[in-house]
Amino acid sequence: MQTEKSKDSWVAKQWAAHKVRAAKAKEKEKNKPLKQKILEWIFWLLMAFVIAFLIRGFVMEPIRVDGYSMTNTLQDKEIVLLYKLPYLLGDVQRNDIVVCRYPGRVNENGATQINFGATLSLDVYTAFVKRVVGLPGDTIQISDGHLFVNGEQVPDPEYMASTPRDYGPITLGDDEYFVMGDNRFSSHDSRSSDVGPLSRSAIMGKVTRVLLPLSAWRSVK
C-alpha cells in the first residue's frame, strides 16, 4: 500500500513530466516555419467557417421579424431562433410557427441569384415568419371572418387588426401547406395569389423562442 510520501513523490514526478512536455511543445511551436503557422491558421479558420455554415444550414439560426403579421405572438423587430433539426428528423405539424420562403420572391435588389462565375451562383430569398394552419389534404376556408379547417372553426388568434375577408374553400394537394399570419388582416400569406400554398421545401424550420430583445425573451407556440 502506497504511503502519503510515495503518493506525493508520484504526483511530483507526473507534474514535472507534464512541465517538460509543455516546454517541448512550446519550443516546437516557436520553431515552426512561418509558412506552416500560416497554413495552420488558414486550416482552423476554414474549419470554424465550415462548422458555422453547418450549424446555420442544418441546426439553427437567428431570424429578425419584420412587420406586424404575427402580432401579438411575435412583435416587429424581435429576433427569434429558427430550429431546423425538427424538420430534418420529423414532419411539419399544424399550428407550428415556421420560417418559410415564398415562390418567386426576390431580394431587396430585385435579383434572385448572386453569380460568382460561369458555374457558381447563390439563390437569394426573403424569409417570412408565419403559422402553418393547413397540412396536405386539408380543406381551408375563411367565412364571416373565421378560419375553418376541414369544416371545423379554428379559434381566433389573440389579436387581429380587423376581420379577414372570405376565402376558399380550397383543398391542399399532397405537398401543399397553408400558412397565415396570426394577425390575419395584415398578413401577406398563402391567401395571396402570388404566394398560395407552399411546398415542403419552402419551409425552412420551426420557431419556438424569442431571443432579443432580452426583455422579451420567451418561448412561443
The average pLDDT is 82
CATH class membership of the largest domain = Mainly Beta
* CATH superfamily caption of the largest domain: Umud Fragment, subunit A
Rg on CA atoms, Å: 27 Å
Number of self-contained structural domains:
2
Strand content: 25-35%
**Which secondary-structure class do the elements indicate?**
alpha+beta
Q: Which regions have little confidence, pLDDT < 50, spanning 5+ residues?
A: 108-116
How do you describe this structure in short?
By secondary structure, this protein is α+β, with helices and mostly antiparallel strands. The chain has three helices and 13 strands.
How would you sum up this structure, described in words?
The protein has 3 helices and 13 strands; from the N terminus they run ααββαβββββββββββ. It has helices at residues 4-30, 34-58, 85-89, and strands spanning 60-64, 79-83, 97-101, 113-115, 121-123, 127-134, 139-143, 146-149, 152-154, 167-171, 178-180, 203-212, 218-219. The strands form 3 sheets. Strands 1, 2, 3, 6, 11, 12 and 13 form a 7-stranded antiparallel beta sheet that branches. The termini are far apart. The model is unreliable at 108-116 (pLDDT under 50).
